[in-house]
UniProtKB/TrEMBL annotation:
This is Ig-like domain-containing protein. SUPFAM superfamilies: Immunoglobulin.
Amino acid sequence: MRNRLTLSFVDGNLKCELNWGLRSFHCRVPLQREEPPTARVVPRVWNGQYGDKHQFRCITTGSPEPTIVWSGPDGERLPDGVADIGGGI
C-alpha cells in the first residue's frame, strides 16, 4: 500500500488527508481570508480652537483586522493632554 497525502480546498478550509499504510488521518484548517486594510477617521474635518477637547475615531476594515496606533506628525508620540484610549478612539 502506498502512502499518500491529499490537499484540497473545501468551503474556505484546507482539507488534508494522509493515508499511511493501513492508517488514515484527516484535518481541516480554516483559512483566513485576506482583505486589504482600509481606514477612515471620523470626523474628517473638525474646526476647533487650541485647547478644545474632542474625540476622533479611526474605523478600519480588513483581514486580518488592522491594528490602530495613533501618533503625531512624522510618527512623533502624542502631545501632552492627547491620549489613545483604545478601540480606535
